[in-house]
Amino acid sequence: MVSWFLSAAIICSAVGGKATSQEMERRKPVFVLNVAGRLEVHYLPVAGHGPAYEEADFLASEVVLDELEVPDYQAKELASVLEQYASELKRIKAEAAKTPGQIRDRLVSLQDRTRKRLSEILLPHQLRRLSQIQLRCRLRRVGLCKELFQGELGLKLGVDTATKNRIDAKAHELAVELGKKSLQRRKEVIDDLLEVLSDEQLATLKREMGEFFYGSEGNIELLCYQLGYERRPERRQHDPYCGFRATPVFEIYVDGTLRPLPRPKRRRPKQLVEMILPLL
After folding, report:
1. Tens digits of per-residue pLDDT, 117-140?
2. 3-state secondary structure string, 18-76?
3. Domain range enclosing 210
4. Which residue in 56, 212, 254, 267 is deepest, having the highest Cβ count within 10 Å?
5. Is residue 266 part of a domain?
């Protein structure tokens, strides 16, 4: 069960930045793991648009409302605020093309007004718990290293350069260790499942699979994407959460072998088009 949860957590982290909270709410909250059976995952909405958006999105989740012990009268008030928030957000996005220079100011204004109204409805202990839930889910989405290096948590803890270097070194060490354990456990799960086959079925399966292939046992690129990073200071002035770029740094195979990954070259869209056109 631990390995199943780990696998699902890795998948959640990988897709979290690609799926909006609304899409997650519509999806059936179940992951089907091909070799490990089925694991139910109860989603919490994790938006990628900043703290104010997260507050509104989180409060749209019944799981969060239950955790905050929100009574009916509060739930009705919150629903009204969230409905107005969603309506105004939709209108701002629809008018973005007409007034591109004003969209940021309008979004910030909407965030501030929404946050103020939510703070007037929720009690202090509910606001505190909501903040804790946001932090925990943000750590799952962006990774502890990024939050300590660039997020508000690092500022609160006073993380200096020396501490960042120690965290960086330790994170790399733990990624190697976790990768080996994860892939070894995956192999054990597969071996356990194969025990239900008859000798004849197992012999047929081995014959169909053939000899061991070095690259077929998987890797832990998804584990590495939060650890292999590079700073992009030119974007920090626009969005403090975009200062890191996901860059896998190595693969770990089930036998413990490490294979460094080549550093990808960044190409502009025009260059990519020029590369692809001759292949069509």
Report:
1. 999 999 999 999 998 888 887 777
2. CCCHHHHHHCCCEEEECCCEEEECCCCCCCCCCHHHHHHHHHCCHHHHHHHCCCHHHHH
3. 161-260
4. 56
5. no
